[in-house]
């Protein structure tokens, strides 16, 4: 999908796959893929909601269209985790997740998971992992198992905090849009409500037109929101994003700069106070 995770596009599709002679076509995450599937198409890969812009994909529809053409379906389910969405029940063949994030939950592990739907897929994945020398350390596996014990409790708090922050932010004059499928007015809300059991703590914010220096001033002074890319831990994070930079099948249009926020486990009133001060710096520096 055109809103796939940036490193998947740059490092995997345009790097590893391109060097191996594999051609990649990007598709509009909100449209049918039937017309794009060719005889040589082998795999469709996507995540829902999409990276940075949080569009909801119709997983069942895409899976049905792909299966009709004999194409395998792979989904990145890191945002929802298996507690909030189970892709195999919606037609997906293989599920990948960054266990570094919510499964680990403490920002102290580098790990990923692959969940397959058939014994044949398992043997293929196992052989490839062995051939590439992939071998997670025992300490990493221990930390992931530790994180699983508290995953449901943490996700409940992440979701609650994200809802509080998202609803507060959408009422602010500085904000043009909040990108969070759990909000009733989000374009993907009905799909989310139909298929998902919950929403995680990650969402996007599109500001109104502000200069880059003003956004930098806002970010530099945040006290509880750290600047970091690897979300899913206990702490709140905020980074500037540039959704339109890599799009090829679609065009991203926002009234101004965009941010990605991860609502951690802190007190939501403290997080709102930090955001309020940050937005004041944004306005003052404009």
Describe the protein in words.
The chain has 286 residues and is α/β, with parallel strands linked by helices. The chain has 2 domains: 6-132, Aspartate Aminotransferase, domain 2, CATH 3.40.640.10; 151-284, Aspartate Aminotransferase, domain 1 (Alpha-Beta Complex). The chain is built from 8 helices and 8 strands. The protein has helices spanning 6-19, 59-68, 81-84, 119-132, 138-169, 189-195, 212-220, 268-284, and strands at residues 43-47, 72-76, 94-98, 112-116, 175-179, 202-207, 237-241, 258-262. The strands form 2 sheets. A 4-stranded mixed sheet has the order 1-2-3-4. A 4-stranded antiparallel sheet has the order 5-6-8-7, with helices on one face. The longest helix is centred in the middle third of the chain and has 32 residues, at 138-169. The mean pLDDT is 96.
Essential attributes:
286 residues, alpha/beta, Aspartate Aminotransferase, domain 2, 4-stranded mixed sheet, 8 helices
End-to-end gap: 35 Å
Number of helices: 8
Structurally, how many domains make up the residues? 2
CATH superfamily of the largest domain: Aspartate Aminotransferase, domain 1
Strand order of the largest sheet: 1-2-3-4
Please summarize the sheet with the most strands: 4 strands, mixed
Question: Can you count the beta strands?
Answer: 8
Percent helix, as a range, is 25-40%
Alpha-carbon Rg, integer: 19 Å
Which structural category fits the helices and strands?
A: alpha/beta
CATH architecture of the largest domain: Alpha-Beta Complex
Q: Fill in the CATH topology of the largest domain.
A: Aspartate Aminotransferase, domain 1
- Amount of beta strand: 5-15%
């Amino acid at each position: 999908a055109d809103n796939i995770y940036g490193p998947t596009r740059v490092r995997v599709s345009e790097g590893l796959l391109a060097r191996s002679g594999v051609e990649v076509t990007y598709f509009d995450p909100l449209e049918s893929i039937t017309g794009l599937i060719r005889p040589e198409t082998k795999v469709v890969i996507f995540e829902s909601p999409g990276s940075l812009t949080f569009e909801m994909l119709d997983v069942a529809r895409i899976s049905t269209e792909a299966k009709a053409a004999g194409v395998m379906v792979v989904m990145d389910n890191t945002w929802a985790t298996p507690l909030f969405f189970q892709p195999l029940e919606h037609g997906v063949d293989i599920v990948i997740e960054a266990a570094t994030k919510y499964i680990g939950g403490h920002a102290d592990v580098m790990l990923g998971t692959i969940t397959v739907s058939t014994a044949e897929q398992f043997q293929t994945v196992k052989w490839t992992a062995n051939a590439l020398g992939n071998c997670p350390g025992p300490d990493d596996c221990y930390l992931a198992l530790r994180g699983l014990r508290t995953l449901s409790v943490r996700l409940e708090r992440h979701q609650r905090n994200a809802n509080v922050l998202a609803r507060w932010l959408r009422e602010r004059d500085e904000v043009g849009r909040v990108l969070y499928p759990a909000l009733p007015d989000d374009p993907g809300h009905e799909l989310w409500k139909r298929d998902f059991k919950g929403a995680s703590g990650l969402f996007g914010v599109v500001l109104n037109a502000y200069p880059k220096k003003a956004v930098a001033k806002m970010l530099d002074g945040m006290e509880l929101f750290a600047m970091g890319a690897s979300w899913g831990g206990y702490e709140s994070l905020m980074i500037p994003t540039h959704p339109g930079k890599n799009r090829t099948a679609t065009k991203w249009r926002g009234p101004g700069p965009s941010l990605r926020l991860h609502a951690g486990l802190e007190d939501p009133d403290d997080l709102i106070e930090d955001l309020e001060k940050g937005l004041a710096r944004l306005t003052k520096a404009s």
